[in-house]
Write a structure and sequence with these properties.
- The complex is a heterodimer of chains A (366) and B (262).
- With 366 residues, chain A is mainly alpha-helical.
- Chain A has 17 helices and 4 strands.
- Chain A has one domain: ABC transporter involved in vitamin B12 uptake, BtuC (Orthogonal Bundle), CATH 1.10.3470.
- The two termini of chain A are 30 Å apart.
- Chain B is an alpha/beta fold.
- Chain B has a 6-stranded mixed beta sheet, sandwiched between helices. Chain B has a 4-stranded antiparallel beta sheet with strand order 2-1-4-5, covered by helices on one side. Chain B has a two-stranded antiparallel ribbon with strand order 7-8.
- In chain B, a hairpin with a 2-residue loop joins β1 and β2.
- The longest helix of chain B is centred in the last third of the chain and has 16 residues.
- The mean pLDDT of chain B is 84.
- The chains are: A mainly alpha (366), B alpha/beta (262).
Amino acid sequence: MSAEVKSDERLGQESTLRHLLSKPEFGALAGTILVFLFFGMTAQGSGMFAADGILNWTTVSAQLMILAVGAALLMISGEFDLSLGSMIGFAGMMIAIPTIYFGVPVWLSVVLAFAGALGIGFLNGLIVVRTGLPSFIVTLASLFILRGLTIALSILFANRTIVGGVREAAEGTFVGWLFGGKVGGAFFVFLAEQGIINKLPNGAPSVPGIPMVIVWAVVIAILAGIVLSRTHYGNWIFASGGDAKAARNVGVPVNAVKISMFMLTAFCATVYAACQVFEFGSAAADRGLLKEFEAIIAAVIGGCLLTGGYGSVIGACLGALIFGVVQIGILFTGINNDWFRVFLGVMLLFAVLFNNFVRRRVTGER
Amino acid sequence: MSKSNAPLIEVRDLVKNFGPVIALNGVSLSVNAGEVLCLLGDNGAGKSTLIKTLSGVHKPSQGDFLVDGEKIAFESPRDALNAGIATVYQDLAMIPLMSITRNFFMGREPLKRVGPLKFMDMGFADKVAREEMVRIGIDIRNPQQAVGTLSGGERQCVAIARAVYFGAKVLILDEPTSALGVRQTSMVLKYIFQVRQKGLGVIFITHNVRHAHAVGDRFTVLNRGKTLGTYAKSEIELDDLQNLMAGGRELQDLSAELSGTV
């Protein structure tokens, strides 16, 4: 009986290109290559691809990567978090104010900030899954509530919206290093001795070490990538976003999955906030402004569908990389920085058009 | 299978009320191992409510529900699934954006241990998905391809194969052929026949008498929340079944008016 079904002559062997096209990160990969080619030609000799230049755009990309990975996983599970940026400001203040004004040990402040952020993420998720309201509206409300709270509470407790002195308080502590430190210093000294990278006039290597924010980005991306593509939980994330009803029918705990993804984005926002606070030594109430959109843009450029159920971690990372390279590359090439947003918008538009095309192809819609 | 001669599923005088609405008002049916029971009914006859009651979504208001000859009360679809009753819904069976493998094992992913961690065993999952597809007769394609690239009939077959693979004893198929073309339909009907040969009980819900007559052993007709009776294939003709399902006279009149095209 199978012979009859098999003999559908319209189905050939899948070509390699077709297979590549069906990968969510294909568009972002092509975009990354284009962006590197463009700046490789226009920014040649400007120092963009010297050690310190590379570190510059890698750091910017890594910061966004932390947020984009969280946003991508949440988006794949079928939801959004617009309060991501506000959460960064709020988490920063949750670290700085107790440390500076209440004499709380800095490690305890960080632990409390993470606990608080996870709690808020849980609440966001709980409201969304219980009410069935679009996460767009629920987290839009959280965006304003959190930003407002950050400003109001900073004024109330500290009578200012920028709280400094965290670097001094964290001097020599483990958490200070964990979020604001650098690794691989000796390696870069060695590279400078060998003449592979430049030295500063005082003899120190031009790159003192890899900032912890890059380490965090790589670790979060690798773990998230493994969970999404290689575990049963990853399958549940795809299923929850692909069709929550079908997933429930086969026993996937959709609500728990979605809530956990809201908590993950809140966690990522707090990592980002902690890295900033310990690097700059201060927290400010307006930190993370518009970061929710940057994270979503990176995820979408990386191939995530806004409707959920489709996307990849590697795609989100490439999206963040494109973002960082363009943002810094424009400075190096001397193009007026105002063009950055134009470029970003155009990139987003193309990414969405491309994703739409891919989705039709994958789902067989015409 | 505990008692060999007891039906896999039997319901007697099942009643289901939603507040003042009586959705089911005395439904009786049974399905045996290695048998296809067709449940026929027009729109609004109570088919959907009956399916949801059998699959544990709704609890019956009155009446008996027996599995393997023993009374049972399901609290959730999970309970029904554990008792070996699997339901394949017409449109909610598969997620088009996910791969065939991921869909096949959705909710029951095979795991392998690596040190203290557990990962999804993708190699095993792909292998099983491919084997099951070959068994159905879709062996050209890659199990990592999205389900969206499969035709409607193939999707239904994969959904049925999934239920069989995970040890279903009774399959409830909710209008598996209603949205399909002729060739796709024959593919699904053939597969239902194959499943029956394996000794599973199948409840095939449809309002297409021809599809039912092609694979059914017995036919239960549902009308206005009641079963009008169950007939063996030898006892009833296609036309009689059609008339019974449509509530008799009206359709015959219509058929006469349209000179026999209905």
